[in-house]
């Protein structure tokens, strides 16, 4: 499957367009679960795949966008059944065709993660794991996470993919015209976190038409060192006689795509409102062009879910007041589980100019791993600064890095073999920065 990504060196890659739009055209009724048609009317889904392949798509997305256990809680079909049939139907549509691939398409769960919602990080991970396992077993070639608006949810999804399959992972988020997602993540933060978690491709989809997405695309290309993909809407939805339609025609759509390609975007498809005509138009528009060479960017960043701090150009201040060494009142607060005191310390440091906050809760009288996770979660719910995970305990560092919402700094590693063998895999897996102590 690596070959599909290797093709990017010489050719653009084309996804399909909007499955939902095509299902509606094919008679999907209001209130119906689109994914149930994989079982009840597989010929409808198959024919849609064929139309996109005929239009020039290299990769088609299985009809699995919303196939998760929460959405299908009251369905007569299981998630595994839905996904297995969807992937196999998509694979069947590519039979006899050369270099065509099937993506396991996974969208947001539909319930916000804590602290914005009620779903825990681990619950989200388990939901994605179920989808990924079913899709991989059914023969999907790649995994596409799309229309994500919560970077924390996306992190759970990427970890589930990396830990439960060997398939390439593509990830796109949906941005509003203010340059942020619905939950507040900006482009630099998205790229820093997604690249750190080792996705193979990242980009933007949905929410806006291709012309409105141009500034977002510019920012993604500025920061990304890996291939970039775009699946824009066919403009913005409008309504006539209670029927939605989109205001950009295929020729205008492909014109904007052509501009993106010349900037450096390498993978294209379509989202809401796009049909095979749009895919055919962009394929024709890029005929004769080749993707630009992807350049390595050299940004050193740490992030929260909504703020990126760039390191290297000027001095940054790391607030270290949440560290019990020599701080009697903080020691008491940790022992007493007085989170209000710790949160006030975090807010105070943010208000007085800290760029990053160090979190250290190591005390003999405290269960450090659970306290670290609890403090990180609470602090991240009230301050927007990136955090530095500070512990001498490797298990604590990994547990904290896993549930951290963003790209953390790990404090620290030294030249001892044991330290490097324990810390570097954590840094690599969770895409963190690390403080290196020059001693052994």
What would you note in describing this structure?
With 440 residues, the chain is an alpha/beta fold. The chain has 16 helices and 17 strands. The chain has an eight-stranded parallel beta sheet with strand order 1-10-7-6-5-4-3-2. Strands 13-14-15-16-17 form a five-stranded parallel beta sheet, covered by helices on one side. The chain has a two-stranded antiparallel ribbon with strand order 8-9. α4 (42-55) runs parallel beside α11. The chain is globular, with a radius of gyration of 23 Å.
Number of distinct helices: 16
Specify the biggest β-sheet: 8 strands, parallel
Radius of gyration: 23 Å
Mean pLDDT, to the nearest integer, reads 95
Shape: globular
Strand order of the largest sheet: 1-10-7-6-5-4-3-2
Low-confidence stretches: none
Structural class: alpha/beta
Number of strands: 17
Helix content percent band: 40-55%
Distance between the termini: 42 Å
Q: What amount of the residues lies in strands? A: 15-25%
